[in-house]
Design brief:
496 residues; alpha/beta; Urease, subunit C, domain 1; TIM Barrel; binds manganese (II) ion
């Protein structure tokens, strides 16, 4: 290391380190960070005076080109990762959704609900490795991203059943670089019973993996949905009434209790309520290996959005739904205190025209349970958390970087290669101008969607330069990197 040649110096910026902000130079050698210190010299100098310098953000929860019934989430691997890069995110972790094994007809749908559709085993329905249907689905998903993603990416494996073939396939999935496994406690075609969930947790733990869970009480939701629809309450504003806070609180509590029984580390995705976050905090206080994620939409938006005129409320239909201002405040407190560890986007965009309004021919409005669920958010996550987290004093600078960059990397086995500004780490770096003003709108974002849930939000603080492995890929809100420059991240060890 004594004679390392530094080819790029990011000079004079305020580095956000785990211990706090430090003014220093960052030296890049090839694809990695070579040195951190004062007075570094190199061939190319990027002046970062007055700017914040942080590790490229890591988004642990995105859904690019995800099939959902007759439609597909509107960002593909290229458009979605390009938008992420412009917003300072250099790593995403998406999902593999294998089809049932053995293959069965299209999953049953209750009341025509638009659900994510499990992918078939391989591209075009072919199973390339019949011995392991999960590995075949992983290969197919990697093939979609290869040559298209412009930032680095990992994949979580989804477990839609806990049959013998699936459980036996898990160790090979871990060995193939995917040691994190997504489970669902609701959604036809995905929902695991408590028995199946326990079997899955046991197998994931035995393979040294980490389980993720979408925790909502399926029976409670089905019960309320039936009542609402029978009463003709079909407009988007009834969506949150079909999934009240108690349905999340019960399922988070139960998932954590069962993970404790099975001895499996558990990561609860998209915690939307104060009650859900309280449950994660209690499990952690007991010493359980439990992690909680929330999302910008649950910190910044409320269920009032569903009361918008006409069909506009459909733009905000996601599950779990937006909650109350009290929940927003509770989630900020838990994020600040460390009871919640990460912020993921849960980016799952659908066009308002042509996708969200699907099924409109069925009546004046499609019923809320036919609206494809999900919202865009891959691009502005880091900047939203700065303007609404750091500026009002809810998060310190280092906590902001922790929840958006370091913790997602650490939990999912990418740290310190990702999420840290230390020698030897990948030179994924964001230069963030705390004075830069941006008003969010579809025109200022690169997401492939005709709306943003944050339309009109005035941000102060925005990324001005994004580097992926030493190369500038986004500058002043435009992508300038090579097409298809992202790499699959083979992960071996998760936090447990
Ligand atoms: Mn979910
Ligand atoms: Mn999701």
């Amino acid at each position: 290391m004594n004679h390392m040649v530094l080819d790029t110096i990011i000079r004079g910026g305020t580095l956000i380190t785990p211990g706090g902000p430090v003014i220093a130079d960052l030296g890049i050698a090839g694809e990695q960070i070579g040195a951190v210190g004062l007075g570094l010299a190199g061939a190319r100098v990027i002046d970062a005076t007055g700017k914040l310098v942080l590790p490229g953000a890591v988004d642990p929860h995105v859904h690019l080109q995800m099939p959902a019934g007759p439609v597909q989430s509107s960002d593909d691997w290229e458009t979605g990762t390009l938008a992420a890069a412009c917003g300072g995110t250099t790593t995403v972790i998406d999902f593999v959704e294998p089809g049932p094994n053995p293959p069965t007809p299209f999953p049953a749908r209750e009341g025509g609900e638009v659900l994510p559709s499990p992918r078939r085993g391989g591209a075009g329905g072919e199973v390339s490795d019949s011995a392991n249907h999960l590995l075949a689905a992983l290969a197919a998903r990697r093939a979609e991203a290869e040559g298209r993603a412009v930032i680095d990416y990992g994949l979580h494996m989804t477990l839609i059943d806990a049959g013998p073939a699936t459980l036996a396939a898990i160790p090979a999935v871990v060995a193939a670089g995917c040691p994190s496994f997504k489970t669902y406690l609701t959604y036809a075609g995905f929902k695991l019973t408590d028995d199946a969930f326990l079997s899955a947790l046991e197998a994931v733990a035995a393979a040294g993996g980490l389980a993720l869970v979408h925790a909502e009480n399926d029976a409670g939701i089905a019960f309320l949905k039936r009542r609402l629809l029978a009463a003709g309450r079909v407009e988007p504003r009834y969506h949150p009434r079909s999934r009240p806070a108690g349905t999340e609180a019960e399922a988070v509590e139960r998932a954590l209790a069962l993970a404790d029984v099975a001895g499996c580390p558990l990561y609860v995705v998209h915690v939307s309520t104060g009650r859900g976050a309280d449950a994660v905090a209690r499990a952690r206080a007991r010493g359980q290996a439990a992690y909680g994620e929330t999302c910008p939409q649950y910190l910044l938006l409320t269920e009032k959005e569903y009361d918008r005129a006409g069909f506009e409320g459909a733009k905000f239909v996601c599950s779990p739904p937006l909650r109350t201002g009290h929940d927003n405040a509770a989630l900020w407190r838990h994020l600040s205190s460390g009871d919640l560890q990460t912020v993921g986007a849960d980016h799952c965009p659908f066009f308002f025209r042509g996708q969200k309004d699907l099924g409109q021919s069925a009546g004046p409005f499609p019923s809320f349970d036919r609206i494809p669920g999900g919202m865009p958010g891959i691009e502005a996550r880091l900047a939203l958390l700065y303007t609404y987290g750091v500026r009002p004093g809810r998060l310190t600078l280092e906590r902001w970087v922790e929840v958006c960059c370091a913790a997602p990397a650490r939990v999912f086995g990418l740290y310190p290669r990702k999420g840290a500004l230390v020698p030897g780490a990948d030179a994924d770096v964001v230069i963030f101008d705390p004075a830069r003003e941006v008003t969010l709108a579809p025109a200022t974002l690169h997401e492939n969607c005709d709306y943003t849930p944050y339309d009109g939000f005035r941000l102060r603080g925005y990324p001005v330069l994004t580097l992926l492995r030493g190369r500038v890929i986004a500058q002043d809100g435009e992508f300038v990197g090579p097409r298809g420059g992202g790499r699959f991240l083979h992960r071996s060890e998760v936090c447990s």
